[in-house]
């Protein structure tokens, strides 16, 4: 009888934790409902000048590395291909909607060690693009399979490498 009671208690605790996470996710979505819609990807894009594979880590409100944007499926991590095209930056995510950052919206590029709850051991583990949409600044993070290409991305975007303070 004691084992059954302990198992039921563990299941109830687990269910309460799952409910709390779901409730927090929904609350954040309601709070962020007023954010401007993300730009639509153009029907056709020019030839990419840079292309790399990796993981789309997430998009946050700029300046707050843990404030993940969770409207729609923007908050979902996914395998992705990051492409620099003449029109901007395209993030083609596997199993999620693509993200497009128009060239005129890009404000800065840097390498960093953390974004959207993802923390890397290396100071240069993530490529972070800061961009503006209807007056609101966002940081979009990408962890490339080959981090050696980050310097090429920073040079192509005309930015110097900037590391922010430690996130750990």
From TrEMBL:
<protein>
    <recommendedName>
        <fullName>PH domain-containing protein</fullName>
    </recommendedName>
</protein>
<dbReference type="InterPro" id="IPR057446">
    <property type="entry name" value="PH_bac"/>
</dbReference>
<dbReference type="Pfam" id="PF25362">
    <property type="entry name" value="bPH_11"/>
</dbReference>
<feature type="domain" description="PH">
    <location>
        <begin position="36"/>
        <end position="157"/>
    </location>
</feature>
């Amino acid at each position: 009888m004691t084992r059954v009671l302990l198992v039921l208690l563990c299941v109830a605790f687990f269910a309460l934790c799952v409910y709390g996470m779901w409730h927090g996710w929904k609350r954040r979505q309601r709070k962020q409902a007023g954010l401007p819609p993300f730009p639509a990807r153009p029907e056709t894009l020019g030839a990419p000048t840079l292309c790399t594979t990796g993981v789309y880590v997430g998009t946050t409100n700029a300046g707050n590395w843990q404030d993940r944007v969770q409207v729609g499926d923007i908050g979902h991590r996914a395998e992705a291909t990051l492409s620099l095209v003449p029109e901007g930056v395209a993030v083609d995510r596997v199993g999620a909607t693509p993200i497009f950052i128009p060239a005129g919206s890009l404000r800065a590029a840097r390498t960093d060690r953390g974004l959207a709850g993802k923390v890397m051991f290396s100071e240069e583990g993530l490529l972070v693009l800061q961009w503006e949409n209807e007056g609101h600044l966002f940081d979009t993070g990408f962890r490339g399979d080959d981090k050696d290409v980050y310097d090429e991305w920073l040079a192509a975007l005309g930015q110097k490498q900037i590391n922010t303070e430690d996130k750990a």
